[in-house]
Amino acid sequence: MSDATRVSSGQIGRSLPRVEARAKVTGAAEYIHNLRLPGMLYGKICRSTVPHGRILRIDASAAAAIPGVHRIVTAEDIRTVIAEPYYGPAFHDQPILAEGKVRHVGEPVAVVLATDPHIAEEAAQAIVVEYAPLPAVFDEIEAMNSAAIVHDILKPAGTFPDLKHLAGRSGTNVALDFHLRRGDTERAFAAAEHIFEHSFRTQQVMHTPLEPHVSLADAADGGVTIHSATQTPSFVRIEIARLLGWPENRVRVKTAFLGGGFGAKVYVKLEALAVALSLLARRPVKLALTMEEQFFTISKHASTFRIKSAVDGHGHITARQCQVFYNGGAYADIGPRVAQKSGFTATGPYDIPNVAIDSYEIYTNRPPAGALRGFGVPQLVWAYESHTDLIARALGRDPVEFRRRNLLRDGAPQATGTVMRDAAISAVLDRLAARLAWDQPFDRGAGTLKRGRGLAIGFKASISPTTSVATVAIAADGSCILYCGTVDMGQGSTTAMAQIAAEALGIEAEAVRVVAPDTDVTPYDMGTLGSRSLFHMGNAVRLAAQDARDKLAALAAETGVPPGANLPISEQFRRKYGMQAGTIVGAGSYIPAYAPPDSATGLTPNATPFWMVGGAGAEVEIDTETGRVRVLRLVNVADAGTPINPGIVETQLTGAAIMQLGFTLFEEMQFTDGQLRNPSLAEYKIPGIRDMPDRIEAETVDSAQQSGPYGAKGVGETGTFAVSPAIANAIEDAVGVRISELPITAEAVYRALRRAAGDQLEDL
Fold first, then answer.
1. Are 333 and 298 contacting, i.e. CB atoms less than 8 angstroms apart?
2. Exposed e or buried b for every residue in 468-503, given b needs 16+ CB within 10 A?
3. Is residue 5 pLDDT above 80, yes or no?
């Protein structure tokens, strides 16, 4: 920064264009996919063709005979460089390459290394693997009591404080079961005037970032440098160091801008394999997945949600029982945390005195599932907000009024016993109803085209406890550099962190340079996930900048600058050192308080540092002859605290809503006996321009997160919460049928209409 850029404040609330925008639109921005190193080999993966089976034989002779093949690697080779080659953030259950058996179609079995990626691909396809099939299980409910056991032995990772208790159930497919009990549900149900019970399902879907997974490892000089498209560089360093038995200072992880992540690129994905291959080849090795391979790497949990509610004569929900079953696939990844953290919000944003929640993470023989924008919460909101509308309609009550009557308010305890603070649930619902003109007449359509509208609200607890550390360096000429490990994957974090640092330092955000995550340079951060970065890293950045500001004030006092004098920073350094020399470094570390749930009841007085609240409203048109659903208008309203950058917040909400729109209407990984039938964008359809609603609107309500940096909190996931139930509720409003399973395809609506008309569906 030049001294002329110093200002008093005003950086919070600026819709500043993204600081990296020019680099991206000109093609100058760095991406790992573009990286090449001298002597680099390409790795291509041979993947399993059966969902569950013992590996009898791997015949790589034909592959090895292809000119240009450098080496073929199997699990046996991996063990020569990594003694115990299993990784995972919750359980150490995932082998670097399949060892002994495979647990899902598409699991890596062998790798071909070559100087040309096309040769490596040809050779990988030439490898022949013989399997002895084992019984497999694919449905989360069936897996609960299946004799087909995916994992005989579970090794808890013990990485995160909130998962220290994790053990898994031996001899079952249950990776985690979380139970919460508050009040007396049985007594409340016995006294209830009305009881409602429903079941809902969601499908397995893909993150589909347009930049697939990519990692490049260069093991040399007793260490390893990993260039990876990862959301969690600090975690990758810790896990790779553990696998190798090395100190962390021998492992360096560097990343760049990500072409999307959405949770797909958290924790270890390709990095362990790339490191092992580089150690074996003694050359840099790059692994870059195709779009098809992403389908077999990580996905979003399919789920089944059973929900039962008791309602008294005044329209108050007095008790709720929830059973949530998450289909975690073959490896746990972070699924147990999804089941626990999202599970305790399964009752919804309602003040219900008697609650019983059972949340399960289940192993199956599908590709692994993990974090995906919302961390299990969109599956829950889909169920409990569809259930809420069904109750309101059955009681003859207005859906908005019924919700308003039962909402949690600030100062009231949530299901866990944690008191709600700074959660603008009522404001979001009220603003949503106002945007939809809920009390005004609505065009219901005519003829075969029927129209309806619906809304829904949801909330999420932030992941806790997690740590973020940041440093700010002020050079002798007054320029500023911010070092933090938050990965910018399109959410605008680089810009927001610059604004927070600038606000604390009293300079303009454009004057702050943010260094890309590099574990040798940038300090520790738990990861860019769960909408935690703005709150956690934002607080760390604020503290670091304030520390630097205090040291500048001390320097001014030491050099005799009168209080209140506006002496340029560069002149203060010259007074101290006699020339342009020296650096002032400010450091900040942030970890919120946390109280682990009681092992018997699941209750805790401090479950989360902040709550995210989001609501959606939809106006739809249904063609009753075909079942086709058109979303005419999609409205998102959110509580983002005090937005650091309102323009970026609006695009975050809109992008999240469009993503969830795809999951609502047509995206689905389709399986037959464990074989994925549609692993390509030609068959797996994400939203295109023709799928967009005529009107997409997004706004935030006036609120402030008192513990957040300048009143802010994360918003990256908020726009996903309520889209699916809002659309389902609008469909029922239009044509009187309830869809209880995602996706809501034209066929599903058409069949529901025909069933409602009493038609026999066998021949349809």
1. yes
2. bbbbbbbbbebbbbbbbbbbbbbbbbbbbbbbbbbb
3. no
CATH code 3.40.50.1780 for 419-462+610-756: no
How close are the terminal C-alpha atoms of the chain, in Å?
A: 69
| Residue pair 288/259 in contact by the 8 Å Cβ criterion | no
Confidence bin at 761 (pLDDT 50/70/90) = low
Residues 235-291: pLDDT tens digits? 999 999 999 999 999 999 999 999 999 999 999 999 999 999 999 999 999 999 999
Judge if pTM exceeds 0.85. Answer: yes
The domain segmentation of the chain, as residue ranges, is 3-29+466-590, 419-462+610-756
Active site residues: 717
Pairing of strands 53-59, 69-73: unpaired
Q: What is the DSSP letter of 407?
A: B
How far is residue 610 CA from its own chain's centroid? 16
Element (H, E) at 185: helix 185-191
- Strand (E) or helix (H) holding 502: helix 493-505
Cβ–Cβ under 8 Å, residues 584 and 18: no
CA dihedral 148, 149, 150, 153 (to 10 degrees): -160
Domain 3-29+466-590 class? alpha beta
For residue 746, what is the DSSP state?
Answer: H
> 230-248, pLDDT tens digit by residue?
999 999 999 999 999 999 9
- Three-state SS string across 539-574, please? HHHHHHHHHHHHHHHHHHHHCCCCCCCCCCHHHHHH
Can you tell me the distance from the alpha carbon of 297 to that of 270, in angstroms, rounded to the nearest whole number? 9
Answer yes or no: are the C-beta atoms of 147 and 52 closer than 8 Å. Answer: no
Closest listed residue to residue 704, CA positions, set 638, 643, 636: 643
Same fold, 3-29+466-590 and 419-462+610-756: yes
